[in-house]
Batch of 2 targets.
Target 1
Amino acid sequence: MSPVQRLTLFACLLAPPASAQVVFPVSFDASASGLTSTERANITSHVQEAGKRWVQAIGIAASRSIEIEVRIADVPTANATSATTGFVANVGGRDMYEQGAAFELRTGTDPNGATADAYVTFGLAYLRNELWFDPAPAVRTEPVPVNRTDALSVALHELGHVFVYNGWADLTTGQPPATYWSTFDRWMQPGAPTVFIGATAVRSWGTAPDVTTGNNKHWGNATALAGLPPVPMRVLPSVEWINGAPTPLPACQLPESIDAPPSADATGPRGGSLIDQLMNGVVFYRGTRYDITPLDRATLIDTGVIPDRVFANGFDP
């Protein structure tokens, strides 16, 4: 062995092993065929950065690949959903399921095989006329134009639905189906408004946070606030079952954008109100950055995505 070969071998032995990581391959279906190469690149970079931030919040230190398919549809803003679900345990007399992408992150088992793990859908007009794509989404230092909605904030919100904020409880009453529910539905206490009673979320927020009436895989309601758009009421379609598991419902609609109020902090919401939360279901303020909050991290714990509550039988009942 030559001196150079010995030196190279020695360096390899000293080098730390490559760290495991979660990757987010992004593809585009036929509905997105009209997007430009720049639009595709922008969407890809922002979805992947959003995925990276959620993985950091979850704390996954393993090799995973969460494939995301981007679609264009006639929707006012954007939406997203996991492609399928994974069975966790029977809890409270109901079979409990978590979002398929979260199930894969947690267990390493892909519940839907080689097909896409999640779908992110944009309205074309919203994409082109409302969203602002950060030239350096990993850095986030460029000011967001006051007349545009931050695209990374939107991507973060949508992946929140992919990983945890979804289920089958009635959008108005919060009542789950009789025989099954999601890890998020499990903690919803029906009422007017419905509230989320996961213990970690309650400790984080100081009280049980309310979910959005009519769009209840989100936080907050606008009843006491002036100048905010009403939340459109939706009707849930029939749940499709594949291989004995209920599939996620078509994703909850991202709230529409309005100009930020003059008193708003230009650096973004501070999280003091549920309306300021990344996963709020009432409004997105233009010119504003949103990010994963302590309430989101608490919800990840309550729903078992962060495995503090995972036991041998799946979840602490």
Note: Residues 37-58 form the longest helix (22 residues).
Target 2
Amino acid sequence: MRRIRVGVVGLGRLGRFHAQNLAGRVPKADLALVVDAIEDTARSVGAELGVEWSCSIEDLLGNDTIEALVIATPTPLHAEMIERAAQSGKHILCEKPLSFGLDPTVKAIEAANSAGVKLQVGFHRRFDPDWRAAVDRMQRGELGDVYLFRTSLRDMKPPSIQYIESSGGFFVDVTIHDFDTARWMIGEVDEVTSFGSSVAVPAIAEIGDIDTALVVLRFASGALGVIDNTRAAGYGYECSTEVLGSKATARISHHRRSHVQWLTAGQAAEDWVADFTERYPDAYRLELEDFLTSVAEDRPVAVTGEDALAAFTLCKAAEESFRLGKTVKLEHRRRNGEVLYDKAGTG
């Protein structure tokens, strides 16, 4: 397969991680340019990876030799950058969410669709080998009818208050991955009921946000789901899922750097990953490879803008449920092969 020339916009922790993968770990990619608004950051990453750098996205969009870009900038910039990239004919992989607003999200998706470019969203869990293997077996019928879905996403320690203030709120920043996983593994969601608190970091409550949440789902199939999230687990980063079915139960929970258990008098200890970059190195690489294969072979992407819109809508439903103390009911419909969500009301 031919190699694809790619640029990366936004060189924070995740953008730099993508750039490093594209520079040396993704055979289908030629990293052509890295872009960041901070000159020192752009220059240092460019020097580290041996590629051209810039402080302006115009240098990427105006380069006809670059076919695709990865957007890892702050969320408020995503929608506009998607629209501009689409107008330039570039294929796009954008980190979640596409926007903090519904209208800009829809507008960005429509811009990509109208331009005929591919838009993939960064729900990396769909590409993790453990999750993928479980879903493959579920799709073959080995699990049977799903009764219960449970998933946890827990950070070891919270990010800065400055980050949280601009994160779009707990559900959009954290739970959005779990909503996408729920739809991917189980199916569409009819009801969302959520609870939240600020017990770990009082300063988060002072800005009107939460650090811990529990979300209960009712799927269209009748199955139930439970999501638990926290910004301050303390022991490490955890992302685990369990699906209980009529024929079997699938559990996904791998969080160790090595498989050595250290035994001392009366105790057993094992290591634990600290963050998502340690837990998901393969998933992020495979996500990029799948995106570039879609570009090279002109096939649909695995995670669409409409998938991002559905997860975002579920996040807003969870936020409303938490604020009002009520269950939020949802309706979903198909259009052009994609599922679109509408809020049906509260009860």
Note: The chain has a mean pLDDT of 95.
